[in-house]
Amino acid sequence: MGGTGFVGRHLCRELVRLQYRVTVPTRNVSRAQDVQSSPFLELVQVDVHDEAALARLVQSHDAVVNLVAILHGNSFDFQRVHVELVKRITRACAHAGVARLVHVSALGAASDAPSMYQRTKAAGEAVLQGSDLDWTVLRPSVMFGEGDKFLTLFARLQRVFPILPLAGADTLFQPVWVGDVVNAIVQCLQRDDTGRRIYEVCGPERLTLRQLVKLAGSLSGHPRPVVRLPTALARLQAFLMELAPGQPLMSRDNLDSMRVDNVASGKLPGLEGLGISPRSLGDIAPTYVGIRR
Fold first, then answer.
1. CB-count exposure of residue 211 (10 Å: 0-12, 13-18, 19+)
2. What is the Cα–Cα distance from 107 to 205, expressed in whole angstroms?
């Protein structure tokens, strides 16, 4: 589930390379052609919120990977995608006799977290923990890599604007390379000792959002001054962005998420527990956030 998104495209490419047979559900096959074409991969047009269709889809599969998530929306949207869909997937797996489920959640997921995004992510995890499935939960920090909407977005903004007003400038992140997230998912599919465990999937560096934005500007060849927005102005900016058509660059719920640092707690196993040495921003970011004049 979610195989046509940022992580999904990278995961499909790796699973095909390893010659796994992969089924990717999508709402519109014609719009999912950027997913790698292969005899090992099948695109199926289906509404993943249709429980009967889900049950038919997962039949005869050995495992399910759930990558479906949203960053923006209201309480109904978050509940529908992060909780109700997980319930449907869980029931579909149980009905079809598919025991193995790898679920990608989010770092900071907690029932008492400040944002709807984080709270509903935690509620989705609770659904799995209350099931009889052989589940694994991965909690990644913000992800970077080719095709991301993170560093490349900040690089693009600095090519356009002479100054960058920034909400949440001092929030700490522990960015993780999408390739390491994909490797973690593959390890969970291949190893029997990862069942019913939660992993915090983070990179080796802890950086503030301001530092990350400045890195993106430097890599793009257009470093700009970054101005920290006070809370009131940040919320006003996010509110105005929510009113614009399309997906907002920032929402008030995103700001709520940034009230707490997005770094590993140290209480749960990380990538090293899966035999993975996480790659740094310095290793990867220069390969895709290139200088453009």
1. middle
2. 15
As given in the structure block, the two tokens for residue 96 are 């079809």
Q: Is the dihedral of CA 68, 74, 76, 78 positive or negative?
A: positive
Number of H helices, E strands in the chain: 11, 12
* 170-185 burial code (b ≥16 CB/10 A, e <16): ebbbbbbbbbbbbbbb
Provide the β-strand partners of residue 26: 45
DSSP for residue 142: S
- Among candidate residues 270, 275, 288, the one with its CA nearest the CA of residue 206: 270
Contacts 24+ apart (CB under 8 A), 239-243: 242/72
Render pLDDT for 160-172 as a digit per residue (tens, 0 to 9): 999 999 999 999 9
| For the ranges 42-46, 108-112, 145-149, the one whose mean pLDDT is highest | 108-112
Backbone angles phi, psi at 262, to 5 degrees: -100, 70
Give the pairing type, strands 172-173 and 207-208.
antiparallel
Amino acid at 287: T
Cα distance between residue 23 and residue 61, in whole Å:
9
13 Cβ partners below 8 Å, 6+ apart? 36
- DSSP secondary structure letter of residue 14: H
Res 56: pLDDT: 87
Contact 118, 257 (CB under 8 A): yes
Q: Give the per-residue pLDDT at 162.
A: 93
State the DSSP code for 36: P
pLDDT for 45 equals: 87
